[in-house]
Amino acid sequence: MRRRSVFQFAALLLTLIVSIVPPSPGAAAAEPAYVLGTGDRLRITVHEKPDLSGEFAVGPGGGLSLPVVGRLPAGGMTLAELEAALADRFMVAAGIRDPRIAVEIVEYRPFFIIGAVETAGQYPYVNGMTVLHAITIAGGFRRGESQDVIVQLEAARARERIQTARQNIAVAYARRARLYAERDQRHAIDFPPALADFASPERVVELTANETRVLEQRTQSLEAERALFEVQKTVLGEEITALEGQLASKGKLIEFVQQETAEIEKLRQRDLVPLTRILALRRSATELEADRRQLIAHIARAKQEIARVDLQILNTQRSRSIQIAESIKQADDDLAQHGVTLRGAEDQLAKAEAMMSRTTVQPVFSEQNGEVRILRREASGAKEIRAADDTPVLPGDVIKVPSRPPSPAYR
């Protein structure tokens, strides 16, 4: 009793999960209209007629009984067809002109699961559920039958991890080769031959093209940055040259003023020129000296700016080298980690395949062996179909899970 309660709780939990995941728009558009059947519970709303509205169930034989209009056959109809039939009935029986009817499903008819599951029986249907959901709601496969499924799932997961690890190794190899080219300042990448061991030829072409494009972009960015620094240094060098020319001119002017001042002082000693002339020359010499010192300061600042640009170039190169070295180390670590993952997945796959070979296990969910089947009633009659784990389940379906494989390959 307690075990059945656990399964019922699991069924309720999965039902909630499935119910909150909406079907994809594309899938919804492709599905045929739902056909009503015995057990479906409907909410019928007659506009401005609450006494005629309510919830009604499709009874045995597909009949639907409503007040005023009586009983009509709803089984086999779609919602749109039922709305049209009800509108005609209400026009005739209730005298409603242009009745507006809305029909929606409150609760789908249940589905049934029998055979090699823990808890066979009837279960509420949830829109969007699959065979795998149904088997899970029923408590999963019986112990024994489920062992083969577990082995298959382990093998499938191992193959998926192997494929993912191989792809990751190929990506790491390609990235590390590009980083080596950046470190050595080469314009071409020397991709390792091992790259072809972990990726298909198409994937190898894609990886090499991507990394080559990244190298070209990073190289262009580096060259543009270097060119900008060189332009700055060129402009500063030209400014220094111009300032030094001005400084030389100022020096010559100062020399001329000094010579003139010496001559004027000789004449002043003989009272041949006024004192103001000497003062004017000394003032000019002082102004020229101030200009000369200012030019020297400008030249010093320009040289400091050149030194700053050189330091910036050095820091940029150093940062780039550190970044490349760290990226190479990360690529090496990724290769080691993915290698461990690959070897572990290969070991797991080998063990699973050994178990499969001992028990001659075949895939349980495949369209070839038809292990799980669904009995489905349609307008043309009952039909049995083969099912996979992702086959959609419809209301009223009977899912049959055999207790032993149907073909000799399972024995």
Structural class: alpha+beta
Sketch the topology as an H/E string, one letter per element. Answer: HHEEEEHEEEHHHHHEEE
Mean pLDDT: 83
Overall shape: it is elongated
Helix share bin: 55-70%
Brief write-up:
This protein is 59% helix and 12% strand. The chain is α+β, with helices and mostly antiparallel strands. A hairpin with a 3-residue loop joins strand 3 and strand 4.
Notable traits:
single chain; about 400 residues; alpha+beta; 8 helices; about 60% helix
What does this structure look like?
The structure is a single chain. With about 400 residues, the chain is of the alpha+beta class. It contains eight helices and ten strands. The chain has helices at about 1-20, 25-30, 80-95, 130-135, 145-185, 195-200, 200-270, 275-360, and strands at about 40-45, 55, 65, 70-75, 100-105, 110-115, 120-125, 370-380, 380-385, 400. Strands 7-6-10-8-9 form a five-stranded mixed sheet, covered by helices on one side. A three-stranded antiparallel sheet has the order 2-1-5, with helices on one face. A hairpin with a 7-residue loop joins strand 1 and strand 2. Helix 5 (about 145-185) packs parallel to helix 7 and helix 7 runs antiparallel to helix 8 (about 275-360). The longest helix is centred in the last third of the chain and has 85 residues, at about 275-360. Residues about 1-30, about 360-370 and about 405-410 have low confidence and may be disordered.
